[in-house]
TrEMBL record:
It is an enzyme of class 3 (hydrolase). Residues 1-20 form the signal peptide. Belongs to the glycerophosphoryl diester phosphodiesterase family. SUPFAM superfamilies: PLC-like phosphodiesterases (SSF51695). This is glycerophosphodiester phosphodiesterase.
Amino acid sequence: MIDSRLILAALLAAASPVAAQDMLIIAHRGASAERPEHTLAAYELAIDQGADYIEPDLVATKDLVLVSRHENELSGTTDVASREEFEDRRRDKTIDGQKVAGWFAEDFTLAELRTLRAKERIPSVRPANARFDGLYQVPTLAEIVKLVRAKEAATGRRIGLYPELKRPEFLLQNDGIDMVDLLLREFRTLGITPADPVFIQSFEIAPLQRLKQRGGGFKLVQLVAPIGGPADEPAMRYAEMVTPTGLAEVAKYADAVGAHIALVLTPEGAPTALVADAKAAGLVVHAWTVRPENDFLPPMLRTGDEPRGRGCGDVKLAAMLKAAGVAGVFSDGALKGRVCS
């Protein structure tokens, strides 16, 4: 029987000292372990903590402005459900085969959306973040870029953008909103070029292929999960896409694979074949998502018994991923500068 403790010790030794250095740190929705996700405050804190990239999930408003939310459904991350003036906007929609009830960004103009306030998405896990509920607006992509440039000027270092297109096929088919067109148009307006530190990611295939054809060289990332498949290719499974044959196909339009940690490490903590197979296809691997709370960590990396407890498990997990060969990790918490024994 495999002893996970021995594997853990070996991997940590390979990454000694236990720190997340020399690997891209992608701030997952900003410093989302410390501030409500996808707010300017979360992005700024992540930059201050040393993140190399910040990751805004992008959705579109009714008047075709790109804003940052985890999903196009708004009630999980804003106070829209408590706003009587928007009660009549509540809808039932079928998104990627699932029925979803709520309020959706594409049914609001930017001006209407700006009256809402962000809230913590998982207050039971991150109650300290809930103290910031009601303070922050939903940011536009333009505002996020303005923040990044201000922080670059203040710090003298480059800070990358790692946007994800959320539900692009659904928006194209149901609302006629082409997220690829919107993103490329906004990038042109903002003066963002492929020479800038930018990765564009999606769980779907067609938007990345269109970006490959029309995007002029932006680095593209195919997201993959342990189960399911791309919404725009119902017959395709992510499990097929991470085989050597599947990765060779992905490499025709993407530069990297954004893979769930379970596809990179076994339950015992040993590396899978994914990184080596991806490298053979000409792809790098970025792993998602490293989170600091015990609830999100494998048992061997937890500190104490409190589900919300935090220790050094996230740093150790990042080090294991580094030892497994990933080029970057998505992280909810600070990793740069933290060293654990």
